[in-house]
Write a structure and sequence with these properties.
225 residues; Rossmann fold; two-stranded antiparallel sheet; alpha/beta; globular
Length: 225
Protein backbone atom coordinates (compact mmCIF):
# COMPACT_ATOMS: atom_id res chain seq x y z
CA UNK A 1 0.00 0.00 0.00
CA UNK A 2 1.23 3.49 -0.71
CA UNK A 3 -0.29 4.88 2.47
CA UNK A 4 1.98 4.44 5.48
CA UNK A 5 -0.90 3.83 7.87
CA UNK A 6 -3.29 1.56 6.02
CA UNK A 7 -6.28 2.21 3.82
CA UNK A 8 -9.80 3.33 4.70
CA UNK A 9 -12.16 0.87 3.03
CA UNK A 10 -15.68 2.29 2.69
CA UNK A 11 -18.71 0.12 1.94
CA UNK A 12 -21.55 2.06 0.31
CA UNK A 13 -25.02 0.68 -0.40
CA UNK A 14 -28.68 0.97 0.48
CA UNK A 15 -30.08 -0.54 3.70
CA UNK A 16 -30.23 -4.31 3.19
CA UNK A 17 -27.48 -4.40 0.55
CA UNK A 18 -25.38 -6.68 2.74
CA UNK A 19 -22.68 -4.20 3.69
CA UNK A 20 -22.48 -5.51 7.26
CA UNK A 21 -21.91 -9.10 6.16
CA UNK A 22 -19.22 -8.08 3.69
CA UNK A 23 -17.56 -5.81 6.24
CA UNK A 24 -17.29 -8.71 8.69
CA UNK A 25 -15.74 -10.92 6.01
CA UNK A 26 -13.30 -8.17 5.08
CA UNK A 27 -12.40 -7.71 8.73
CA UNK A 28 -11.45 -11.36 9.03
CA UNK A 29 -9.43 -11.35 5.80
CA UNK A 30 -7.73 -7.98 6.26
CA UNK A 31 -7.13 -8.10 9.99
CA UNK A 32 -8.43 -4.56 10.43
CA UNK A 33 -11.58 -3.55 12.34
CA UNK A 34 -15.04 -3.16 10.88
CA UNK A 35 -16.58 0.06 12.15
CA UNK A 36 -20.36 -0.03 11.80
CA UNK A 37 -21.98 3.26 12.69
CA UNK A 38 -25.30 1.41 12.75
CA UNK A 39 -24.09 -0.91 15.51
CA UNK A 40 -22.60 1.97 17.47
CA UNK A 41 -25.79 4.03 17.18
CA UNK A 42 -28.02 1.10 18.15
CA UNK A 43 -25.92 0.70 21.30
CA UNK A 44 -26.28 4.42 22.03
CA UNK A 45 -30.06 4.19 21.44
CA UNK A 46 -30.31 1.69 24.31
CA UNK A 47 -28.69 4.10 26.76
CA UNK A 48 -30.83 5.97 29.28
CA UNK A 49 -29.60 9.39 28.24
CA UNK A 50 -30.78 12.39 26.24
CA UNK A 51 -28.62 11.31 23.30
CA UNK A 52 -29.81 7.71 23.58
CA UNK A 53 -33.47 8.70 23.54
CA UNK A 54 -32.97 11.10 20.65
CA UNK A 55 -31.11 8.49 18.57
CA UNK A 56 -33.83 5.93 19.34
CA UNK A 57 -36.54 8.37 18.20
CA UNK A 58 -34.71 9.15 14.96
CA UNK A 59 -34.10 5.48 14.16
CA UNK A 60 -37.73 4.56 14.79
CA UNK A 61 -38.85 7.28 12.36
CA UNK A 62 -36.55 5.98 9.62
CA UNK A 63 -34.57 9.22 9.42
CA UNK A 64 -30.78 9.55 9.64
CA UNK A 65 -28.77 10.77 12.61
CA UNK A 66 -27.16 14.20 12.09
CA UNK A 67 -23.79 14.57 10.37
CA UNK A 68 -22.28 16.20 13.44
CA UNK A 69 -23.14 13.30 15.74
CA UNK A 70 -21.87 10.69 13.27
CA UNK A 71 -18.65 12.59 12.63
CA UNK A 72 -17.89 12.69 16.35
CA UNK A 73 -18.63 8.97 16.69
CA UNK A 74 -16.38 8.03 13.74
CA UNK A 75 -13.53 10.33 14.76
CA UNK A 76 -13.47 8.90 18.28
CA UNK A 77 -13.69 5.28 17.10
CA UNK A 78 -11.05 5.51 14.38
CA UNK A 79 -8.61 7.12 16.81
CA UNK A 80 -8.34 3.92 18.85
CA UNK A 81 -5.21 1.71 18.68
CA UNK A 82 -6.86 -1.14 16.76
CA UNK A 83 -7.31 1.21 13.77
CA UNK A 84 -3.59 1.89 13.48
CA UNK A 85 -3.25 -0.28 10.34
CA UNK A 86 -6.46 0.91 8.67
CA UNK A 87 -10.15 0.18 9.05
CA UNK A 88 -13.41 -0.63 7.28
CA UNK A 89 -16.32 1.83 7.41
CA UNK A 90 -19.85 0.42 7.22
CA UNK A 91 -22.57 3.10 7.14
CA UNK A 92 -20.35 6.18 6.90
CA UNK A 93 -20.18 8.50 5.03
CA UNK A 94 -23.84 8.74 4.03
CA UNK A 95 -23.92 12.38 2.90
CA UNK A 96 -21.57 14.66 0.98
CA UNK A 97 -20.97 16.63 4.17
CA UNK A 98 -19.85 13.43 5.89
CA UNK A 99 -17.66 12.55 2.89
CA UNK A 100 -15.96 15.92 3.14
CA UNK A 101 -15.44 15.39 6.87
CA UNK A 102 -13.85 12.02 6.10
CA UNK A 103 -11.55 13.65 3.53
CA UNK A 104 -10.20 15.85 6.31
CA UNK A 105 -9.88 12.88 8.67
CA UNK A 106 -8.09 10.76 6.05
CA UNK A 107 -5.49 13.48 5.52
CA UNK A 108 -5.03 13.89 9.27
CA UNK A 109 -4.58 10.12 9.58
CA UNK A 110 -2.39 9.86 6.44
CA UNK A 111 -4.66 7.26 4.83
CA UNK A 112 -6.00 6.60 1.35
CA UNK A 113 -9.70 5.94 0.68
CA UNK A 114 -11.17 3.14 -1.45
CA UNK A 115 -14.96 2.93 -1.77
CA UNK A 116 -16.91 -0.22 -2.67
CA UNK A 117 -20.53 0.30 -3.78
CA UNK A 118 -22.64 -2.82 -3.18
CA UNK A 119 -25.53 -2.37 -5.62
CA UNK A 120 -28.91 -4.10 -5.06
CA UNK A 121 -32.26 -3.31 -6.74
CA UNK A 122 -35.07 -1.80 -4.63
CA UNK A 123 -37.47 -4.79 -4.79
CA UNK A 124 -34.73 -7.09 -3.53
CA UNK A 125 -33.90 -4.67 -0.71
CA UNK A 126 -37.55 -4.66 0.39
CA UNK A 127 -37.65 -8.48 0.50
CA UNK A 128 -34.41 -8.64 2.43
CA UNK A 129 -35.39 -6.11 5.08
CA UNK A 130 -39.09 -6.74 5.64
CA UNK A 131 -38.47 -10.49 5.65
CA UNK A 132 -35.56 -10.38 8.09
CA UNK A 133 -35.97 -12.20 11.40
CA UNK A 134 -33.31 -12.25 14.14
CA UNK A 135 -32.64 -14.65 17.02
CA UNK A 136 -32.15 -12.84 20.35
CA UNK A 137 -30.11 -15.76 21.67
CA UNK A 138 -27.41 -16.48 19.08
CA UNK A 139 -27.99 -13.47 16.77
CA UNK A 140 -28.55 -15.73 13.75
CA UNK A 141 -30.48 -13.95 10.97
CA UNK A 142 -33.16 -15.63 8.86
CA UNK A 143 -35.41 -14.34 6.08
CA UNK A 144 -38.98 -15.47 5.47
CA UNK A 145 -38.48 -15.04 1.70
CA UNK A 146 -35.01 -16.42 1.05
CA UNK A 147 -33.86 -18.25 4.20
CA UNK A 148 -36.81 -19.26 6.36
CA UNK A 149 -36.25 -21.22 9.59
CA UNK A 150 -37.25 -24.89 9.60
CA UNK A 151 -40.01 -24.07 12.10
CA UNK A 152 -41.78 -20.75 11.52
CA UNK A 153 -40.70 -18.13 14.05
CA UNK A 154 -38.16 -20.40 15.76
CA UNK A 155 -34.34 -20.31 15.50
CA UNK A 156 -32.82 -23.43 13.89
CA UNK A 157 -29.75 -23.19 16.15
CA UNK A 158 -30.96 -22.51 19.68
CA UNK A 159 -34.74 -22.81 19.51
CA UNK A 160 -35.51 -19.28 20.72
CA UNK A 161 -38.32 -17.24 19.20
CA UNK A 162 -37.30 -14.98 16.32
CA UNK A 163 -38.18 -11.30 16.22
CA UNK A 164 -38.37 -8.54 13.62
CA UNK A 165 -36.52 -5.32 14.35
CA UNK A 166 -38.77 -2.30 14.87
CA UNK A 167 -37.27 -0.57 11.84
CA UNK A 168 -37.83 -3.55 9.50
CA UNK A 169 -41.55 -2.90 8.92
CA UNK A 170 -42.58 -2.01 5.35
CA UNK A 171 -43.34 1.66 6.01
CA UNK A 172 -40.05 2.34 7.77
CA UNK A 173 -38.05 0.29 5.26
CA UNK A 174 -39.54 2.31 2.39
CA UNK A 175 -38.62 5.52 4.18
CA UNK A 176 -35.09 4.30 4.90
CA UNK A 177 -34.46 3.38 1.26
CA UNK A 178 -35.93 6.66 0.01
CA UNK A 179 -33.86 8.65 2.49
CA UNK A 180 -30.75 6.77 1.41
CA UNK A 181 -31.47 7.38 -2.28
CA UNK A 182 -31.95 11.11 -1.69
CA UNK A 183 -28.99 11.70 0.60
CA UNK A 184 -26.42 8.98 -0.02
CA UNK A 185 -26.24 8.39 -3.77
CA UNK A 186 -24.27 11.64 -4.24
CA UNK A 187 -21.59 10.10 -2.00
CA UNK A 188 -20.70 7.35 -4.45
CA UNK A 189 -20.74 9.93 -7.25
CA UNK A 190 -18.17 11.88 -5.20
CA UNK A 191 -15.87 8.87 -5.05
CA UNK A 192 -16.60 7.79 -8.62
CA UNK A 193 -15.53 11.14 -10.05
CA UNK A 194 -12.30 10.98 -8.04
CA UNK A 195 -11.55 7.41 -9.23
CA UNK A 196 -11.89 5.87 -5.78
CA UNK A 197 -15.02 3.77 -6.31
CA UNK A 198 -15.71 0.26 -7.57
CA UNK A 199 -19.26 -1.10 -8.09
CA UNK A 200 -20.11 -4.68 -7.07
CA UNK A 201 -23.29 -6.63 -7.84
CA UNK A 202 -24.76 -7.21 -4.38
CA UNK A 203 -27.58 -9.46 -5.63
CA UNK A 204 -25.20 -12.43 -5.82
CA UNK A 205 -24.60 -14.91 -3.00
CA UNK A 206 -22.55 -13.36 -0.16
CA UNK A 207 -19.49 -15.49 -0.99
CA UNK A 208 -19.58 -14.35 -4.62
CA UNK A 209 -19.98 -10.71 -3.59
CA UNK A 210 -16.99 -11.09 -1.27
CA UNK A 211 -14.87 -12.62 -4.04
CA UNK A 212 -15.72 -9.68 -6.29
CA UNK A 213 -14.83 -7.21 -3.53
CA UNK A 214 -11.50 -8.92 -2.90
CA UNK A 215 -10.82 -8.83 -6.62
CA UNK A 216 -11.32 -5.06 -6.56
CA UNK A 217 -9.43 -4.45 -3.31
CA UNK A 218 -6.62 -6.83 -4.16
CA UNK A 219 -5.96 -9.83 -1.86
CA UNK A 220 -2.31 -9.09 -1.22
CA UNK A 221 -3.00 -5.44 -0.47
CA UNK A 222 -5.93 -6.27 1.79
CA UNK A 223 -4.10 -8.97 3.71
CA UNK A 224 -1.19 -6.63 4.34
CA UNK A 225 -3.50 -3.75 5.43
Amino acid sequence: MTSRRGKILILVGAPGAGKGTQAQMLEQRCGIPQISTGDILRAIAKQDSDLGREVARIQKSGQLVSDAVLADVVRERTGRPDCEDGYILDGFPRTLAQARTLEVMSKEQEREILTVYVRVERHELMNRLTGRRTCPGCNEIFNVHSRPPRVEGVCDNCGQGLFRRDDDNEETVTQRITTWADQTKPVYEHYRTTNRLVTIDGAKAPEEVFADIMGAVGPCEAESA
